[in-house]
Amino acid sequence: MFFQRIKYTDLLTAFFIVLDLILINSIAYLLPINLEEIILFHCYITTAWIIIALQTNFYIIYRYSKITYVLRLIVRQFFFYFLIIYAFIGFFKQPNMSRLALAQYVAIVFVTVSVLKLVHYYLLMEFRERIKSNTRNVVVIGQNKKTSQLIQMFRDRTEYGYNFVRQFCPKTDDMPIEEYFRFIQEENIDEIYCSISELKNNEIVDFINFADNNLKVLKFLPDNKNIYSKKLKFEYYDYLPILSLRDIPLHNPINAFVKRLFDILFSLLMIFGLLIWITPLLAILIWMESRGPLFFMQKRTGLDNNEFYCYKFRSMAMNRDADKQQASKGDMRVTRVGKFIRKTSIDELPQFYNVLFGQMSVVGPRPHMVKHTDEYAGKVDKYMVRHFVKPGITGLAQVRGYRGEVQKESDIQNRIKFDVFYIENWSFLLDIKIIIQTIINMFKGDEKAY
């Protein structure tokens, strides 16, 4: 359960991040550097390494990355690391540090980490090619020179981990575009590659909407047509240029690692610092007013539209409509204790167990009941985009006032707008800002917290 939805590539990346940090700290003891501020030095080089890696995308290896890309990452990482290591002498006034030993340290770290980086790269390639794990089912839309090159690349470069399933030809196929969509759904296709020179503008829009609403990755072979998207990411598969419709920061392994690490640490802090003593107290208060279980578990939809049980402190009297009817203002099912814990959002605290188990994140789009997901997926545009990341205990839409009961259509539309913005513009600082605003709202009170 703890490693739910964690791919082997993410685990491998996390392993090499930790291994690199251990090495850059351990190798310092092999040489006579004459460290006077040992703890300061280790904090400095660890922080510097992580910051540089974030800026250079050192731990991002795409399935279509070439060895030259990996070598550029290594050179870029160590160029800045070398400068920052030597800056330590001047910043912290360490005249007794051996410059020669420091240079030897950087050289040994460079060789060691470079070897590990290349091992990481080839392990990923070999794993995909030999074990056929973590493959992506793909279809290609269009029939021309570029699509033929792309299909040939999928077939030849098996180490990339793509499983080519079918090619569609809009100009010659005697079938409506809806048949393409039906096939993509039935065959569990992961990625769609469109040659937009063969699609009409309205068909491009149809593909964009279909991909957004059905959790499919959509990419284009570019030409001079207009693509209706705010943000495009330019990539190369072998020597073929490819445009990605949406760049999701949390699909970056190091961003995902940082967010997951924060989730684990923050959830442990809340569980052992707050839940461990507030749970028995609430148990007494809840049971005094209403007999029944302490916790309320409800099926909700999360990452990739998978269902999970979301935990809450029970705030209502036992009733049959808990999984069907959303709480409304003045709801008679809510107990007196329930009104207080809902107003202060204390009822949401058990979801830190969901975070620890890997089903949720501290910050993300709020998970909806299965009934509501089924209802909104068919009538709210871009609704399914929110399932590209883990749901959160709090989110951007919630701190902007769109939480709780959906009273009118604009409520759910604005909630989705903020959810999609969060997914496309995630940063660690944005998460911190949302957490701080959530805490402020807890003390101020939210008019929609009922």
TrEMBL record:
GO terms for cellular component: membrane. Keywords: Membrane, Transferase, Transmembrane, Transmembrane helix. It is found in: Membrane. GO terms for molecular function: phosphotransferase activity, for other substituted phosphate groups. The keyword ATP-binding does not apply. Pfam families: Bac_transf, CoA_binding_3. Its main location: membrane. Residues 259-444 form the Bacterial sugar transferase domain. The chain crosses the membrane at residues 12-32, 38-61, 73-92, 104-124, 264-288. It is a multi-pass membrane protein. Belongs to the bacterial sugar transferase family. This is Putative colanic acid biosysnthesis UDP-glucose lipid carrier transferase.
